[in-house]
Amino acid sequence: MFTGIVQGIASVDDVSASPGLSTLVIRFPNDKVEGITIGASVAINGACLTVTRQENNALYFDAMQETLRLTTLGNLKPGDEVNFERAARIGDEIGGHLLSGHIHTAARIVDIQRPENNVTLWFEVPKEWTRYIFPKGYIAINGASLTIGEVTGNRFNVHLIPETLRATIFGKAREGDLVNIEIDSQTQTIVDTLARLGYDRPTPAL
Could you tell me which residues the Lumazine-binding repeats occupy (predicted)? Predict the structure, then answer.
């Protein structure tokens, strides 16, 4: 499990493709790999991956075809930066909301607004996922636990303070970028349960 509090930014050193998977070599800040072990779980842009090898502060991860299909990890190339979070431990503060690291879909940044002292990002998601997106609800974007602002059709926004921009790759976000989305599990459970009881939420018109 993860908390959605991004612990830092890491950089992609290498990506190698083999039949059925890709191996990612990602370099972390030196102080963020202390105590890491082979088999440990780390969220990379929100996707839970397993450490398969370590060389100093470079960690190796294998991403299977299903992971590459559902997430943006297949688009990574050397030099790209990613958000990371190591798996939560019992007793850790839950500053965001509980995440599984299982990505549901990808969204595209369609607009970036820069009012004074913050940034507003607008995202567009596939229509079928809008049923789980509510104003003021939780969502994880590239592994960061965020609060949804406005929702219009299959678009929604989030408001980011300077500290979030500094600590994550959102500080370099551009229109057209794809991001990983993990829907809040409690929201999904409630919506699906109500749908089974006949109280389905209509999909917003586009």
Answer: 1-97, 98-194
